UniProtKB/TrEMBL annotation:
The F5/8 type C domain, residue ranges: 617-736
InterPro entries listed in its UniProt record: DUF4838, FA58C, Galactose-bd-like_sf
Originating species: Aureibaculum flavum
Segment forming the signal sequence: 1-32
Coiled coil: none
Keywords from the named record: Signal
SUPFAM superfamilies: Galactose-binding domain-like
UniProt name for this protein: DUF4838 domain-containing protein
Length: 755
């Protein structure tokens, strides 16, 4: 049965007049016969009805229900929703469904106006849903800014343009934004046309970084170390040896088992673990050299696995050491996920990360199955200012232009700076990378009267970053890196002023005020971190009137920050699991340390072991009164693979009875507490007497807390001393089970308090 017959014979085969209307549409499918604007509703009434076509799926029917809901909300109408057989011969129509005579691909959608009738269709249920939401947003003026904030115009008369001939297919067909705003609310995800599942056909426990799952160290390493990577003449369980025949057999059998247990799954990831400690044995190295990249041994291995599963797909990574393309083409059933983790986010990838662009182009010459795993926020400090929003559009355009159909934008999932704005912009750009004015659209809609001030903040911080073209905006950076650039004290005061004005503008609107308070968290966090550095009289932990009292401005700022986070259900500070509660309590401890009497403050420090890279390798960091935060960039003196030995000259003989030294732990970055810390004293700087030693009572384990600060505090009977010596013993290298096994470990030390 043709569509023109089927549409009117579903229930009532006698509606001849309607057949004529549709036939007219079909014969003039690209020509509008209407003059002047179309009134979908008029003064709260309508002569339209919504007709869902055929016997729709539940999803397609719900798309029609959604359209009805929004028309009724906007105009105060009760527009009829009927099936084909129940439609009136008098009313104009809004047809919703798959129109057979309009050929659409599965991701394509169409909105047409013909002879006052509106036809909304899609090449699949999902495309139809997208078409309905496009119509609601673009033609009815509805905006969705968050799961709880939508803007619906109130107008009794809905006027449509006289010509609507819209056809669209998003070139990025799998669009994922790693944000709980979407993951926890499917309806909001649908409105912004993103998926809540980036891996819909994958075996759920084999999506990425799977080497250790196929051949776990706990099971195989002791008896079969040859299965693992050779690093500096030692086998370590960091990665697999991809030229070992037993490794191939075990992985092949494991993949087969996963597909057998998950018969509906189509994809298994066979991919490197999250480190760069790949195998350098003779066989692997020979392949990598011939292939021009460590991706060579990986792709040859993955291709060999994929040969066994021609009706399935094997996914792998082009990530860190495997990012550069090799010479061998991936098989047609091999998916390449290219990751941009190293890139500088201060400017578009094409400006600051040309090697990634070259790798993208290189992989696109080898395969059509390129997937992009991109990153949009700072993972070491979710709530820190991270002015990369002007890079989002050119980066998505780069991916689109190089035929990436699958893009996963790794947000923080948990809230980060301007979380709703970031989620909104990213989702909208994945749908249409050429959209303009999204920041203005969002700030005006979401923050209302305060939006102009939030926009000023966004514009200014990006402009200030641009003044420092050499600044590397890193995913694993820290706000302390910018205290002499876009987060300098003068600018922090301006940003603070913008948010003060924003709060004042919506003071009588509690819900909007709450949004503004959440938006200012990043500026407040930067202020709190700046205060640890004692940048000026306001940005200081201690009162300028009394150095043994806390700065009340900072104490109040900490309380506001904490309370805003708790009210917004913001619980994590970074991807390492450092919680807001831990940050709050740690900060209070930092204030306690800052106001302690410290006779070592400002005193000369001499190092007998060499630091590396951080805190400008300046020994005076240990007594400068500035305190490090939970990231090693912030005022920590680092020692890589060697111990700490330092002497502090108190200038004169002092009576002392306690010494405290702070150490940082960030286990995934090979930063561990020292094994022990010893304290000594002397009056001639030649002969030192040992005061005592503290053994680390939190030895490193797989279950150790990833990110924290520990104070090695030692009290002793009073002694008279001028010189204090501190020794801290480094582990020297990461343990064999750590992802950085074989690499030198760090200790990071900060303020020494002597009382």
């Amino acid at each position: 049965m043709t569509f023109s017959n089927r549409i009117y014979n579903f229930r009532n085969k006698t509606k001849i007049a309607s057949i004529g209307i549709l036939c007219l549409f079909l014969s003039n499918v690209f020509t509008s016969c209407s003059d002047g604007n179309i009134k979908l509703t008029n003064n709260g009434t309508t002569d339209y009805e919504i007709v869902y076509i055929g016997t729709p799926s539940e999803s397609a029917y719900q798309s029609a229900v959604i359209l009805k809901k929004y028309i009724d909300k906007i105009a105060g109408t009760e527009i009829e929703l009927v099936d084909e057989g129940s439609q009136s011969t008098k009313n104009n129509k809004v047809y919703v469904g798959a129109i057979n005579e309009v050929s659409l691909t599965p991701h394509e959608l169409s909105i047409q106006l013909k002879d006052k009738n509106i036809f909304i269709s899609g090449g699949s249920d999902n495309a139809l849903q997208n078409a309905v939401y496009v119509f609601i947003e673009d033609y009815l003026g509805v905006k969705w800014f968050s799961p709880t904030v939508e803007k619906i115009p109130s107008q009794s008369t809905i006027t449509l343009p006289s010509t609507i001939n819209y056809k669209y297919k998003s070139e990025i067909t799998t669009r994922t934004v790693h944000s709980r705003l979407f993951y926890e609310n499917d309806e909001f995800a649908n409105k912004l046309k993103v998926t809540t599942e980036a891996f819909p056909t994958y075996v759920s426990n084999a999506r990425v970084h799977t080497f250790h799952k196929f051949i776990p160290e706990e099971k195989f390493y002791k008896e079969h170390s040859e299965y693992f990577a050779l690093r500096q003449n030692k086998r370590l369980p960091t990665q697999l040896c991809l030229t070992n025949t037993d490794v191939y057999t075990i992985v092949k059998d494991s993949v087969a088992s996963l597909f057998k247990k998950n018969p509906l799954a189509k994809v298994v990831s066979v991919s490197q673990d999250d480190n760069t400690q790949y195998c350098q044995c003779e066989n692997c190295s020979k392949i990598d050299e011939e292939e021009g990249s460590p991706a060579g041994s990986l792709i040859l291995f993955v291709n060999k696995i994929a040969e066994n599963f021609p009706d399935k797909q094997i996914s792998t990574l082009a990530y860190q050491h495997t990012r550069k393309p090799c010479k061998t083409k991936p098989r047609e059933n091999v998916l390449i996920t290219l990751c941009s983790i190293e890139c500088d986010r201060s400017a578009p990838i094409t400006e600051k990360c040309n090697d990634f662009t070259e790798d993208l182009i290189g992989w696109s010459k080898l395969t059509d199955n390129i997937r992009i795993w991109d990153y949009t926020t700072q993972f070491t400090n979710f709530l820190a200012p991270f002015p990369n929003m002007n890079t989002l559009q050119p980066n998505v355009q780069l991916f689109r232009d190089n035929n990436a159909k699958w893009v996963f934008e790794q947000h923080s999932n948990n809230p980060s700076e301007l979380f709703e704005l970031r989620s909104y912009i990213t989702a909208k750009l994945l749908w249409n990378p050429d959209l303009d004015s999204l920041i203005t659209e969002f700030t005006v809609g979401y923050y209302e009267e305060a939006g102009v001030y939030v926009k000023k903040y966004v514009d200014l911080i990006h402009a200030e970053l641009k003044k420092h073209p050499d600044f590397f905006l890193f995913l694993y950076g820290d706000p302390s890196q910018a205290f002499d650039s876009y987060l300098n004290p003068e600018l922090l005061e301006i940003y603070k002023g913008y948010f003060d004005a924003a709060e004042k503008a919506v003071a009588t609107k509690p819900e909007v005020l709450k949004r503004v308070k959440e938006a200012r968290l990043s500026t407040d966090y930067a202020i709190l971190e700046a205060a640890k550095q004692n940048l000026n009289s306001q940005l200081s932990l201690v009162s300028q009137e009394n150095s043994n009292r806390a700065n009340m401005f900072i104490k109040d700022k900490l309380e506001d920050f904490y309370n805003t986070c708790k009210a917004a259900d913001i619980n994590l500070m970074n991807e390492m699991g450092f919680t807001v509660d831990e940050y709050y309590n740690s900060y209070k401890k930092t204030i306690e340390v800052a106001i302690k009497p410290n006779i070592a403050k400002g005193k000369k420090v001499t190092l007998f072991t060499k630091p590396k890279k951080y805190a400008n390798e300046n020994p005076q960091v240990l007594t400068d009164g500035a305190l490090g935060g939970n990231n090693f960039y912030a005022n920590w003196l680092g020692f890589e693979g060697n111990h700490l030995e330092a002497v502090i000259d108190l200038d004169s003989i002092q009576t002392i009875s306690s010494i405290s030294t702070a150490f940082l732990q960030v286990t995934n970055h090979i930063v561990f507490y020292p094994l022990n810390v010893s304290y000594y004293y002397s009056n001639d700087n030649k002969t030192f007497k040992k005061l005592g030693a503290l053994v680390n009572d939190e030895p490193l384990r797989k279950t150790s807390k990833i990110n924290n600060i520990k104070y090695f505090e030692f009290a002793f009977p009073k002694v008279a001393a001028r010189y204090i010596k501190i020794k801290a013993e480094n582990m020297n290298e990461a343990p064999y089970w750590h992802h950085a096994a074989g690499l030198p470990s760090w200790i990071f030390v900060d303020e020494v308090i002597v009382e």
